Fold these 4 entries.
Entry 1:
Amino acid sequence: MNFTPALIYGFSERMPEFVGSRRMATALVISAIFWLLAWYIGTVYTMVALWGSTDDFAHGFLIAPISGWLIWHRRHAIDAVEFVPDFRALPVLGVVGLSWLLGHLAGANVVEHFAIVLMVPLTVWAILGHRLIRALAFPLCFLLFAVPFGKFLEAPLMEYTADFTVAALKLSGIPVYREGQFFMIPSGSWSVVEACSGLRYLIASLTVGVLYAYLFYRSFKRRAMFIVLSLVAPIVANWIRAYLIVIIGHVVGRKYAVGIDHLIYGWLFFAFVVLLMFWIGSFWREDLEVHPVSPAPLAVRFQSSPIALLVATSAVAGIVTLWPQAAERMQPARQRSQPALYAPSATGAWRPVSAGLTDWNPRFVGASAYVHKAYDKGTSGAGLYVAYYRNQGPGSQLISSANTLAANSDPVWRNIGETRRAIDLDHALFPVTEATLRAKSNTLHVWYCYWVAGQYVANPYWAKILQAKSLLFGRGDDAAVVIVYAPGEDGPETTEPVLRDFLPAVLPAITQSLERARQMGSDRQL
């Protein structure tokens, strides 16, 4: 006996309720996403601000529209999926929210940004279910490309670009003298700065490459191959671009290789590389036309009850609001008092001098207080710089890309290399980052580290973690950078003994001054 007419008739009676439930579910998940963005509007603002202020991340404005188009592209698959809340997503949403809180306390914007973007698919998962997440996995995960991420790659990319350019110039028969990211050839001096790292090309190429691989390939192997190509091609292309710019400046003239010509040449070259990638990828392209998915038999289609949808949405809303409220309560009251720092007086044979050793000043912006003092001991000289941070926030953070020993745009000083190491002081290892700064008539050997939560650390990421821990336990966000340096033309071999003698002499007084400043701030807060 054929029951099909009866089944269709039975479902037609339930059709208005079924469609209304799907519309309700869609409205609830959209409302939940807007609720999420409203509570984390500060994080969203910092992310959008980076899109607008940094060319490396300008593509972020396009990610959400592309994701929306991809979701529309999968609309037939969505029609075949029941919307059933999945409460397994709630603990995952809670963990991601906790990650946002820790990132917020540490001032780690990238952690906040990843957390807020990940909360969007988790919200969809919790309210509409795992079947829909499977159908929309790529469009929702593609939102991660909106996160301004990758600045840490800038330094190694600059290093590799300089390595290739110098090697290629030598192979071309052009003599080269190199110091860090700076090198000289007979026709003039060149430097590999942030804009020459190729980071913007790499990020743009990876974003386009992942999208292309999803749309035009089906097999995992072919997608992986094209994504690898989209990673390697812009790096190698940027090396060639940097080399050709130097060659143009050497042969034709610098005015043809710098300024606006430099940028136009770079982007035109990148566009050519992307088109070349697409042409190569077309040889193993697969048909990715998405066909409508046959829906399940109408009579057995199941739709969650409105009560379950409301419960899931309410749970998501509660978890979402928990972390910003916790952050507000954990953030210490903004202290009006400014920390008082004191340069150590005479320590052992080291005596403070009124004149500075050089005209160099570290670039640490937004510090609450700082001291910069020179000392001498017979024929040896050394300098001390301490910058103290309190009430940290945008524009006044200790760990920030704006804070550096010498900016690449500095007309006098250039940083020719840094490395982290541990110094043996009084039979204990003391962490520092070692750097060499050079000017036309002077060279500085520098050691620096961070003081956070009463500890000295050289790793900036570990310093961020210690700062988050300190705020989590209500101990404030006071932190500082401590820098010692010594001039010397003969390299680290002559200046390192000076610093090994100077640092232990001033470190106890520095630590005492930092602890006193933090304690006074805590007393006023209480």
Entry 2:
Amino acid sequence: MRYVLLTLAFLNCALALAQTTPQIEWQRCLGGGARDEGYALIQDPDGNYVVAASTFSVDGDVVAQHGGGEMWVVKMDPLGAIIWAKTYGGSGGEGGFNICESIDGGYLVLGTTSSNDGDVSEHHGLGDIWAVRLDLDGNIIWERAFGGSLNEEASGLTATADGGFLISGQSPSIDGDLTTNQGGWDAWVLKLDATGNLEWQRSIGGSGMEILLAIQQTSDGGSISTGFTTSNNGDIIGNHGLFDMLVLKLSATGETQWQRILGGTGNEGGNAVAETTDGGFIVLGSADMNDGDVSGNHSNTADAWLVRLNSTGDLLWQNCYGGTAYDNGTSIQTTEDGGFAFLGSTYSTNGDVSTTNGALDFWLVRTNEIGQIQWQRTMGGGLEDQAQKIIRTVDGGFAAIGSTKSNNFDVSGYHGGEFDCWIVKLSADPTSIQDLSSTFNIAIFPNPTHGDETITYTLERAALVQVEIHDVEGKLISTISSGIRASGPHILALPLTKLPSGNYFVALRVDGKVVVRKVSKV
């Protein structure tokens, strides 16, 4: 038996050099003949994906509807096949904008409702924030509506360590569940317990408009949220002009610890936020000017804007990303090396953007810890593709969600109507690839080979495993096996008989890490 262990240095020269960006492993259009939009997704411990979306369709992948727009939740297996798809709502209009796992299992889906029937048991006014707790099969455990007599909306959601949930959004009301309003739309943060009861709520704002689009629980038990503001009075001090990025740090009981207003004389806002390993924060949004806190904008049109803050909200650095057309940032993930991966949308074909397929594309950017681009790529078709959220997957890759009108280039399976929900699964981050040969006792035999080979590996525990064959340029030729594998030894055939003679790489991806072996076909 002869096999070659591929070190990190060799991997960087061979596979990672050619495959400098993650590759699309699979993509899926979800929808029917009307408007269907994807907003958020998670991956559960079994490797399945659960999608939060809104739908107006009554055909295609949409199996039922109550009337008007619906909250739509789709569960897919690790390869994107639908396990179940369910709609939730009443005779009014509903939408699904975010989703998280519950600590005790199942999911919480966040959206809005204007109904008072069907799946909706209470209603305060024109439109309410709607939280729907589901079990693993999509059955409703409980649902709650929150708001006042006017329209409330929310898209920020996170599970908390005590089994509850934090929600961020906005409201113009001063009745119902709300106790104060400074004028116009105020930012609104709600804390729910594990059964959906409102523990506390807090409105923050001025006489203009305050919107909170994202929230995360912080390591001190409080929260960090971001959005935008147009005020310069009330709770808001320091507006630079027009729309500014708003960053809000609250305690565990909802008291303001600090707030930061960041921007220039144009339009700035925050769409995503995460805590960094040093206790600070990274905020992602957009900026369209080149003054105030903003520098490096490419053309006085919107750029994706990345802002690094310390634990007390002081600005450490900021970077603009994009080209001479419209670019934005919508979702961010921290990476194991202290860097960041963010998703946005782009119309540009220059500057930091390598190319697009036409119109608006998904745009994925990987940076180091100080915001320098390590790689970037676009995804989409010839029409409009609107990016919403990205997650790290358990195999070390990424999954992105948004909406598409396309049916060419990277997109296939479009159902028609105005938009489809579009999910893209990408391979492992090439900057995070590791050699795990000693960990999983991997061997390939025979090597070199005249035909088929076998790969053997041992798992210490059950894990999500994917086995791939790549050519010497890093291009994915085929995926041999993908799914949850039990602990213990495994033997898998590698079908090389029909491949031309030459060298290939076999990649074994286990729980976000990758080991690569070189094999020779003679």
Entry 3:
Amino acid sequence: MRGKYVLGALGLFCSIMTLTRALAQSSSASSTPTWLNPVWQQALSAPLLLNSGIEGSAPAVLPQYTISLDLSGETTTYFPDGPITTASTSFFQSLGTNGRTCFSCHRPANDWSITPLTLLATFAATQGTDPVFAPVDGADCPDKGAANNTFGLGFIAARSQLFTRGNFRIFLPPPANPQWVSVTVSSDPTGCETSAVYGINNPTNPTLSFYRRPLPATNVIYTTPGLFGGGPNIMWDTREPSLSSQFHDATLVHAQATASPTAAEIAQGVSFQSGSFTAQTFDYVGRDLTGGDSSGALGGPVNLYEYSDALPYLGNPFAVFSGGNCSVPVLPCPGSLFPSTVVPGDFNGTELFSSFATSGGATAATIARRESIARGEVLFNTRTFPISNVTGLNDLFGAASPVLGTCSRCHNNANVGNDAFDDPKHLGIADNSAPSQAPTGTTTISMAKDQPIFAFLCPQGTIDYFSNPVVVNGVTYDEYQTSDPGVGWITGQCSDLGKFKVPTLRGIGARAPFFHGGQAANMQQVILFYKNRFNIQLSAQDIQDLVNYMNSL
């Protein structure tokens, strides 16, 4: 992932497209999104949590090196400017009416996302009074949350998406003048989609609800604003143009604030997120991942922050990002994209774990794990496979032929694993498109019974690489079914249905479940999805090596 990322002509083509899109977006970035006011009004109308407390509030001080345990070892957040006093940082302050702070949903133990295990522990410790459980979006639907506000099994059942997948409810109005002819609710297990108050049947403020994982609020300096300073790549559906707007809108909606945060509060929240760096630092078997034991490993947040100090600048024009200790164009930086300037297979000395297995004094088990992690890194960066039928990639060429690529083709930010081009991708997760796309005719991620299903009637041919003809009133449409329309619900374009941002990978092992709606319970399911989706030739050992590598990031 920290490798060279063979992109060639694709890199130049996507870069030009991204720059063009960024210029178009910059003119409207400061305006209020059309979706915000109706969402805010619904948030203000949602009931509050009964007996909401502050038991889950942040510690008074976060150390410069904030260490947490996870399932594979330890993760560490590094604050280059020193310890954080939370009382004087808006990220940790309640700015609304329900007691919520950003910290409520973004915890260091989960690499600044949150997981079902953390939520269950918080539920037990606070008897369900932590503001994270606010009905507005912590419940499957606010009326369910309000009716089940006291500690017990009913409380959990009313928040099934939260406790089983770590999902929060994202509720948004329909876009203006959508391309589709109609959208209907085929399945409504939460009861929120067809609600006369909170759903599409509200006569004055119709909305649909989507259940999504919180993206990490760390390492964001490397994932936004993206290549050439443009493109909103900080939300699953790209609806926010900047961290500032995200902080503002989250305060109004998730915290149910009655007024906007001040400019100083917004700046403070953005500064905190931009100044935190998180990565895995220790593996229970492989031990130290940072090179502190002279193993040659380059994992951990300090190496991430100081990445540029160890690498020569190779003169590539794609090293355009400035952050951490970087000073572009003197040195390439984390978050930069740089295709090969040497020979194929040469990662310009940028691997995290290429020398990991050579350290002396380690036990046989430790050496075996380190060798596995190093092999996983090579697989991620070099195992090629034909990428086909992916909007946001294949369609950029205007050709039907597959693109030969690797995992790092899309996770192409150096040392970060985000997509530098800010091109959301449609992979067919939890919709009816992937079975016809995957060479094996199947995937491991289908629409789940516990999540809603929406059916869109789109003009034939408007969804790339998709055909599902149905006849309605004598007219043939393509019926697209999904649990979450993603970018399409923001743009109103059928071609954007099912598109989502490519998430950053650093620290990913501590924030299961994975994908936008928590559809993959563990890392192995993630690897198997891609194996099936693109018919990647992976042995059982290859899969385990990739799992170990991903959990070491």
Entry 4:
Amino acid sequence: MQSQPTIWPLGRDYNEAVQNPRNSFVDGDLQEVVPAVDKFGMPTVSSGQFAYVFKLNKPSSNESLAVRCFRGFVGERDKRYKAIDDHLDHHKIPVLASFEYESSGIRVNGGLYPLLVMEWVDGPTLDVYLDEVMGKREIILHLADQWIKLVKILGEAQIAHGDLQHGNIIVQNGALRLVDFDGMYVPSMKDWNAIELGHRHYQHPLRNPFFFEARLDNFSALVIHLSFLALAENPQLWVDYHDENLIFKRDDFLKPSQSSLFRKVKAMGGECQRLGTILEKACAEGVATCPNLLDLASPKSKLPAWMVTPVGSVVQTKTREVSKSDVSQGTQRPITVTTARPYQPTWQVPQPPATTGPTMAQATVTSLSWGKLIAQGIGQAVRVFAISLFLFWLWVPILGAIYTGMGGADADAQTFAWISDVAICIGIGIFRAKKQEAKRLRSWSRPGSPVPTVSTPPAAPTYRVSRSPSGPIVGSSIRHIYHRPSCEWAGKISARNRITFASASDAQARGYRRCRVCLP
């Protein structure tokens, strides 16, 4: 483990470093990114209590990454992230944003500092999202349902996030995702102490560093769920009580009997009254005695979020980021970014004239044209859907009965039937298109069949061509880069983010770019 620096960069220092990725990032592939910038040409940054988060765009695609630059020293940070990595490698938890920790990932003012490279989760934070959908009862109740499922996923993986609050919850296409794992608990951390106490408006008033275990999220999970239910019934609470919180504040937890919010929530009756009473009692008792949300409530739907998300749940993300063309126009000061030149091979291959022949055609048509396949699949799906409209009187009752048999509500049965019909039509369309494409390829391979013209130079013994490896290679699902298995950067990919491809061409077909260090 490397020694921790004694002096840590300020926000402006990280800002300057991110503007020069080629000189600042240790990872050669991060050196090729371009920071997202605002209208003044400065990197967009989200500043939190413990770190600064920058968005980095990949110039070769429309994908983005997030890098988390830490504000200061935290004891055993490397050891904690190693424990989190090891645990998450054995538990697939899609609600958590993917990440890779680098103990010496960024150079600032001549020193090396840790870095967290994360999947960029595109969507508003929970508070911003709620502000947009406030007054839409069905959508907020849907969030409450999804929240119970999220808490269940964390519980089944035996982990606690440690800082459940609006800024660490992203609403991505109507589904909930979590970010910021500095305070996370995993079973191997038993008998450790917490390095942070979480957002004060979401945590038990008696929480201290010595309470660090799987029950760590019980209080904040209940606070957030009850907030959803109360806001669904009374949107005016958002106007009266929302600030750096949802609706509850630390003062409410310190003196619940004197809290006007607690009185209003319990006066609503039903679930709000029941859970409000439980939360009020939990505030007065020890931090470890707060009940688990899963013992108090259960999700109303067993279906995945995308199948039950109400109409209007997707909110347009608001951002200060502008495009490159916007930055370069007018009087705004454009950002200065050092970009890498595209990789150039050290050899030059003479280009023989185009040729045709069964051998080259055979090599070209052994794989399907995915772009054409998708286009044909959509066309086939539309035809199948048109046919299904004439038989709706048959499949709507059948699919509806399946849905209610799975425990779904009768009111949602028809919606499930139509969504299922569209999904089935798409599947049939792609299957039929793939079958037709495969038939076309087989016809080319038969003796006497016309051979398509291929303008590719034939292999010649006189050319020394550096070929991509044909054996298995390793890719990172976060960075979308593939490596040779022996590459030092391949060894840093965690098991949960590691993808193995049969060859470089397979990785390229999935949109992955080759490593600029090992050049597979």
